[in-house]
Amino acid sequence: MNDEYTPMLTLDAWRHINNFQPEGSVDNFGDPWGMDYRLIETVDAMRDYAGVPFFVHCGMEPRAAGYHPEGMALDGHFQGLHPLEMFEIAQRFDRLNGIGVYMYWNWQGKICGGIHVDTRPKRLGRDFDARWGCFEKGQYVKIDIGFIRKAAAITF
Ligand SMILES: [Zn+2]
Q1: Cα of 147 from ligand 1 centre, angstroms
Q2: Under a CB-based contact definition with an 8 Å cutoff, are residues 31 and 70 in contact?
Q3: How far is the CA of 2 from the centre of ligand 1 (A)?
Q4: Burial status of residue 119 (CB atoms within 10 A of its CB: 0-12, 13-18, 19 or more)
Q5: What's the gap in Å between 156 CA and the centre of ligand 1?
Q6: How far is the CA of 61 from the centre of ligand 1 (A)?
């Protein structure tokens, strides 16, 4: 398989995925058949690495901008982990060219934070990875020591 966007499209593609299924779980992929195979494969591997459940809040979704409409972005959280720990895990996976850390997201009514991950195109050796943090809706900040200190002070 080349390293370009490939939609999941069929149940056969989903059968290669260990930890997620397209439908019938609490995970919300939006249109599971349009999700980028590379993204789902990577999130599957990330969940194996973490050893704790990963819940998908949002996948393919019509929006004005970004990579969710393309099926190349996904939001979610690891059960019981701090968002900074989720970020550290996601950073280990080369295909995740975009990662956002969200401190205010909730899941089933409980604030848990979470991460956005995406497989946006990147020219190796020319483009940098996109990284950002978010304490409240629409307020994006860079991930620097100030962000890390402030985020680390938040407990869940
Ligand atoms: Zn997102």
Answers
A1: 19
A2: no
A3: 24
A4: buried
A5: 21
A6: 10
Instruction: State whether CATH 1.25.40 applies to domain 11-152.
Output: no
Can you tell me whether residue 4 is helix, strand or coil?
coil
Q: Extract the tokens encoding 135.
A: 């304490």
The residue ranges of every structural domain in the chain are: 11-152
Distance CA(22)–CA(30), nearest Å, equals 9
Q: Do the Cβ atoms of 85 and 61 come closer than 8 Å?
A: no
What's the whole-model pTM score?
Answer: 0.95
Q: How far is the CA of 67 from the centre of ligand 1 (A)?
A: 8
Q: Report CA Rg, the chain.
A: 15
Dig out the tokens for 78 from the structure.
Answer: 């690891």
Q: What are the start-end ranges of the H helices in the chain? A: 11-14, 37-50, 83-90, 145-152
The CA 117 to ligand 1 mean position distance, Å, reads 7
From the first residue on, what is the mean pLDDT of each consecutive set of 10 residues in the chain (156 residues)? 82 94 96 97 98 98 96 98 98 98 97 98 94 97 98 96
